[in-house]
Every structure is written in C-alpha cells, then in structure tokens.
Specification:
It is a single chain. By secondary structure, the chain is mostly helical. It has a single domain, classed as Four Helix Bundle (Hemerythrin (Met), subunit A) (Up-down Bundle), CATH 1.20.120.450. The chain is about 60% helix and about 0% strand. It is built from 5 helices and no strands. It has helices at about 5-15, 25-30, 45-65, 90-110, 130-155. It is globular and about 50 Å long.
C-alpha cells in the first residue's frame, strides 16, 4: 500500500461519512436543549461525551506535536465536572473547538513531512500513525454514542 493511500484512508476515518455519519453532521444536528439530559441508564450526558471528545483529542494531538505538553491525569481530567453546558453557546463553542482540533489531526495525517511509522521522539514508543489511529478510534466510539443519544432524544420528542 502506498503511503498516500494510507494517508487518504486515515483522513476518511477521521472525518467520518463511511461507516458512520460525517462528524460535522453528528454534531450540527444534535438537539442542544437535550445536551445535559441523561437518557435512561446511559452513563454519560451528551455534554459529557462532547467535552470528553474535545479534551481527549486535544491531549493526544498536543502530546504528538509538543514535547512540552503535559497530559492531564487520567481519567478525572479527561471528563468534565459539569453534566450540562451552561448555555447553547457552550455546546457550539466546544463543538467548534473539537472540529478545529480534528482539522489539525487531519492536517497531520495529510502532511508528508509527518513520518507516520517513526516513533515520536518525546514519547515512550508511540508512532505518529498510532496517535492518529487513536484519535480516529476514540472519536468513532464516542461519536457513535452521541449519535445514538441524538436519535433517542429525537424519538422521545
């Protein structure tokens, strides 16, 4: 497989739209008034999931690119304290920040100067490819949860 094909596949996985809806559609279509509601016995509210997505992706991205980055303690600092956004603007701002950081991960996946198979110099054996895949996998998991909650809230209305 050529490296270009691999990079294209990484971008496709990061952006969604193949096995699941594009990331932007999942977030843009979410019923924000329900963002702090807990559905049935689900463990997390949509807000908790979105904030966790933002924090985890930010952490992985910055660990990968910044030798000075300090990863917050897991798991406490990777989940929000609040179960709901303070306002609809908070939801939209967090979604915007998440998408901006996602674009930075996509740019990293596309950049031929990023040596996908090499270990990150300041890491403990992680490769650039592993970190990109970690973002894609982690995002897919929690975005699937958000989509499930979105559909459940839409049916409940």
């Amino acid at each position: 497989m050529s490296e270009r094909i691999l990079r294209d596949q990484l971008v496709a996985q990061l952006e969604g739209g193949q096995a699941y809806l594009p990331v932007t559609e999942i977030l843009e279509g979410f019923p924000v008034p329900c963002a702090g509601d807990r559905m049935g016995r689900c463990r997390h509210t949509p807000w908790e999931l979105l904030e966790h997505l933002r924090i985890a992706q930010w952490d992985i991205l910055n660990f990968t690119l910044d030798p000075q980055h300090v990863t917050p303690p897991w798991p406490d600092e990777h989940w929000p304290d609040d179960t709901a956004p303070q306002s609809a603007n908070d939801w939209h701002d967090t979604a915007k920040t998440f998408l901006e950081d996602l674009e930075r991960v996509v740019a990293m996946a596309r950049d031929p100067k990023i040596p996908l198979f090499e270990t990150i110099p300041h890491g403990t054996g992680q490769t650039y490819l592993r970190e990109i895949l970690l973002v894609a996998d982690h995002n897919a998991h929690h975005l699937g949860q958000l989509l499930m909650l979105r559909r459940a809230f839409e049916v409940a209305e």
